Each structure stands twice: as C-alpha cells, then as structure tokens.
Amino acid sequence: MKKHILFVLGLVGLGITSSAPIYAQTTLSVGDLAVVRYSAESNATNIDQFAFVPFVDLSPGTVIRFTDCGWQNSISGFRPRTANEDTLRWTNSTGGTIAAGTVIYINIDYTAAAGMAATTNVGTARASNSFNLQDGGDQIFAFQGNFSSPSLVFGINFDFTDGLPWRLTDANNENSSNLPAALNVSGGNLGFASAERDNGAFEDLRTAASVAQMRSAILDERAWYITDTHANMLAFSSSAFTFNFTPTLTVGDVMVSGYRSDASQGFSFVTWVAIPNGASMNFTDYGWRLNTTAFQGIAHGNDGYGTWTNTTGSPIAVGTQIVVDLGAGTADLGTWTSYAGVGGNFTIQEGDQLFVFEGSLRNPNLVYGANWDSQNNSAWGITDAGATNTNQSNLPAALNGLHGNIGFASRQDNGAYEDYRGAISVASMKDAVSSTRSWRRNDNSIVLSSQDFNTAEVFQFAVGDVMIHAYRSTANNGFSFITWVDIPNGGALNFTDYGYTSSSNSFINFTSSTDGWIR
Description:
The chain is 5% helix and 30% strand. It has three helices and 34 strands. It has helices at residues 2-13, 211-218, 426-433; strands spanning 33-39, 47-54, 63-67, 71-72, 77-78, 87-91, 104-109, 117-120, 124-127, 139-145, 150-157, 189-191, 199-202, 224-227, 254-260, 266-271, 280-284, 288-289, 294-295, 305-309, 321-325, 330-331, 335-339, 353-359, 364-371, 405-407, 414-417, 439-442, 466-472, 478-483, 495-496, 500-501, 506-507, 517-518. Strands 8-7-2-1-13-14 form a six-stranded antiparallel beta sheet, with no helix packed on it. A six-stranded mixed beta sheet has the order 9-6-3-10-11-12, with no helix packed on it. The longest helix has 12 residues, at 2-13. The protein is elongated and about 95 Å long. It starts with a helix and ends with a strand.
C-alpha cells in the first residue's frame, strides 16, 4: 500500500495530472465508412451538405478529416488547396462511443457572414474557409492523418469527367479527381458512372444481414437518387443503419390480395403465418430485371417503396387481411411508412407490379409478387424490363414457383380476390388466392376488403348432403335449400350462380355483373 501512495505522489510532483479523460481514437481502415449523401447545388440556402455512416464504432476523440481536393496520380497525393477546395475536420466530442451505423451530417454554410461555419448532428465539425463542394462536379475523400500523407478511408466522386466514374488522365482542375490506388478496392470508393449530378442520396432501406451486405448496397449506384435540382432533395433521414437482419418469412408466407389504381390508391395483403408484434415487411412497385437480377434503379417518378409494421401490441393471426391506403399513408391494422425517396413516389399504376420482401431493395428476401402490366399479353414480362419503364417487370426466379406469385395476362386498373375466405388448410387457401380465376378486376374502382380468412374449418359436407329445394328469378330473387345432415354451430357452406367449366374443373372467371356468391 505504501508503495502505491508514493507512486501517486510522485506523479503529482511531476505535474502529470489531468481532469479530462484521455481516449485512444479509432483508427480506420479502407471502407470503414461511406458517404451516403451529398448536396453541392445549394441554391439560395448557401449550405453544402454531406452525410456519412461508419461501419465500426467510433471511440471518443476520434478525428476524421474530409477534403474536396481531387487526387492527382502524378504526385500520388491531393491537388493543392485552392480558394474553393480545402479540408474539414470532424471529431467525436460526445464523450461516448458512437455506434456503427449512426448517420452523421455535416452542413457547411459558406456565406461571408458565416465564415464557412460547419455544424453536425453528432460531435463537432470545423471547416476551412475554402471547403466548397462544386456544383459542376466534385469529390469527397475521408482520411485520417494529415493532408500531405493521408491514411485514406473512402472516396466518392460525382464529377463524371470524360463519361467515367473517375478521371483516367491526370486530374487538372477543381472538379476532377483520379482514384487513389489505396481506394481502388472493394468498399473503398463510389464513382457515378451515369452522369454528373450536383446532389445525391442513398435511397434504399437501411437494413442488411451484415456490414459487407450494407456496404455493397451503398456502393451500388442503382440505390442512389442523383439530381441537378436541389428542390427535389427531400430531407434525409437520420435513422441508423443496421447490420443484423435475419429473414423471418419464406416464399408465400404473405400474399397480395388486392390492388387499386383508381380513386384512393392502395393494396391489400394476407398473411399465412403469425406476425409478431414489432415485426415488419416491405413492399415496392419497382420492376424486377432479369439481366441484373435486381430491382430497377430508384430514379423513377412513379415508383417507391414502404414498410408495414405490426404495432398492435399483439401477434397478428394467420389469415389476417390488411389494407394499405397509399393516399392517406395508413393501414387499417398496424403502421404503414412510405419511403417515396427524393426521386420516387409509391404509385399504384394502371399497369404495375407489387412485391413483398424483407431486407433491402439491393439485398431482398423475396416473399411474393403480383403483376398486372401484361407486357406482350403475358402474365409477366418475358423480355428484360426497360430501365425507364415504371410499368414492366420480369418474374424473379425465387418467386417462380408454387404460391410465389400471381400474374395477369391482361391489364386492368383494379383487382381483388373475391372468392370464399374459408378452407380446411392454409395450403388450399393459398391455392385460391394464387388463382386468377378467384379475382374480380375492372377499369373503374374496387373495394379492398379487410375481411379475414378462416383456415380452420373442420365440418365437411359430402355430395348430396344439401339440395336446392326451390328458386325464384322474378320479383325478389331467392332460393331455398334442404340439408340431410346435422350442421353443427359454425358450420358453413357457399352458394353461387357462376357457371362451371369442365375444361378447368372450376367456376368461370368473375367477370359477370349478374353473377356472385353468398355464404
């Protein structure tokens, strides 16, 4: 004990004391963070912005520097600072660890009065007087260390010089940049190969099974909305990215049971498994492309996506049908959240498709698909869906099986399952919902019923147990029947005046306004 006391006194005598804690900052490797938004065309706001997400925890005191100076291969370093290019310093000054997946914003006000003031939602940021994202194309590099010998972490380029994601010849102006060799690896950079755009944002869902999967989604240009019009840039969500998603649904566990493009747009779906409280699933009207085995890019004005979540406080039972009103942004059970994005709008069109999935658009766990576009008079598009066509879709291989999809060979604006909602098993009920003969469709409007399905009927009639006793087609229509067996409480049977076709061993399609069924 005495030795310990003398040691402490000795430190005090040497003046080695401090009231502030000392932290070891996080040392980042290539790909440990990614830029997920940038805005260089700020119009009257005089504010540039970018956001990044770390894929590792950031210890207190961690410093990350950013620059809009381009990289020059001839000197293997950044181009010299100019009046429009310099550095910005971000520090984790929160006193605690910032979790991986946190979205961190940095805003730079470059008005003369502001003096290049930088603000951030987490930690602190300080910009030089020349950090100014160029609206004619620019780049952002994240690094640690100093400007002259940086430890590079990530780079994003939106200059599109010479029609390439990164310049091949030596970068020679404030807009252009080469790709540093250190970042020319998986996860190290994103360069847009389609066009130069002043503003851009990652617009996919922020859920993935792993960091690697999330990183690959962020670095997929198809998951970004890029534009030259600042007014199109909606507020960027600060919700965190998560890397531990595990699929809970399999193909056919949820089915689309109705759609409506006229009047109040919306759709309905039925679940064939119990949905725990807090569980969610996603829906999109993006088309699927066979050549990329992925959903189309998100820069379509009439396409979007959304998430339904069970917020009832209890599990939702098998056979529950749920109606989503896209116009109102609500569901009749649980909660609906639209992610129309800065470039999209979840719109049920006269010819369209609807997919149910978990995860993200770039890494979906596909559950079900419905298509009523009838490309080339087929249930699903046979040729590859056009990249700019918001109506068309191919059928994903994962859904090309029993209970995985429904496709209509003719385009009609509205449709809904209109068959009986009771059966002796889930499988037989799935068969019915997946049959186009069980749907009523039209070009006017349709009611999306919220009536649930009963998949536990146990009483079964045999041929001749019930007979028609009389019918009347004049005056008040009606009929009577007689039963030759006892019918227990809850037992049910159906009646219809639809015709029966021996070729298909089923009733005819629901196309006649004078035909129907009762229970």
